[in-house]
C-alpha cells in the first residue's frame, strides 16, 4: 500500500476509535496503530480539519460535544496554528532557556522543537508539559499553584515566585486576540500575571498566534503588540 493509502487507512481507524471514546491519548493511538506519535501528528495536520491534537490528546474536530476543550469552542485552526508554531520553533537554539505559554496553540510548538536541542523549558500547563516531559535533552520546569481545569494551567504566587527567579532567553506567548487599539488579550484572567512576568524576564518575547486571532479582542489585556520581539503567525 502507498504512503497516501496507509495514511488514509490510519485516519479511518482513528475516526472509528474516536467514535467509541474521546479524547484519546496520543501515545495510545500511536501504539494501537503501530506508528510513532510524530506520524500521528503529521496525519492529523493533513486530515483537512477532521481531527485535532491538543497536547497529548486527540479529539475529533467535528464533535461539538467533546468535554476536553481548553477554550469555549473547539480548535478549528489547527493547521494555521501549526504553521505559526513551525516558524516559532525555528527561533529556538541549543542551550536556550525558553518559556512556553498555555493554550491550544503552544502544544504544537512544544512538539515541533528539534529533539536534538538541549534546552531548559518552563511552562505552566499540563498539555505543554506532557510533550516536553518526553524530550531526552530538556530540563523541564513546571510552574505550580492553583490548577484551572478549563485552561489546563496553573496560576498563583507560587508560579510567579518561581518565574521571577529564572532568566529566560526566549518566551513564546499565546493570545486570544490581537487588536491595533486594544492590544494583546486572552480569555482567562489568571493567565495575565504569568504572561506578563514571562515577558518581563525574557531577553526576547515572541507572540505565537494564528491569523484568526487578528482583530479580535478578549476580556483580559496583558500586553501591547510592540512589547514583542516578533509575531509568529501563519500569515503576516
Protein model, in words:
With 236 residues, the chain is of the alpha/beta class. The protein folds into two domains: 3-60, Arc Repressor Mutant, subunit A, CATH 1.10.10.10; 78-232, 3-Layer(aba) Sandwich (Rossmann fold), CATH 3.40.50.1360. It contains eight helices and 14 strands. The protein has helices at residues 3-20, 26-33, 37-45, 78-89, 106-112, 126-132, 157-163, 192-201; strands at 24-25, 51-54, 57-60, 97-100, 119-123, 138-142, 146-148, 153-155, 168-173, 177-179, 183-186, 202-208, 220-223, 230-232. The strands form four sheets. A six-stranded parallel β-sheet has the order 6-5-4-9-12-14, with helices on both faces. A hairpin with a 3-residue loop joins strand 10 (177-179) and strand 11. Helix 2 packs across helix 3 (37-45). The model is unreliable at 63-74 (pLDDT under 50).
Write the topology of this structure:
Blueprint: H1 3-20, E1 24-25, H2 26-33, H3 37-45, E2 51-54, E3 57-60, H4 78-89, E4 97-100, H5 106-112, E5 119-123, H6 126-132, E6 138-142, E7 146-148, E8 153-155, H7 157-163, E9 168-173, E10 177-179, E11 183-186, H8 192-201, E12 202-208, E13 220-223, E14 230-232
Parallel strand pairs: 4-5, 4-9, 5-6, 9-12, 12-14
Antiparallel strand pairs: 1-3, 2-3, 7-8, 10-11, 11-13
Helix pairs in contact: 2-3, 4-5, 5-6
Total number of domains: 2
The assigned structural class equals: alpha/beta
How many angstroms separate the termini? 39 Å
Low-confidence stretches: 63-74
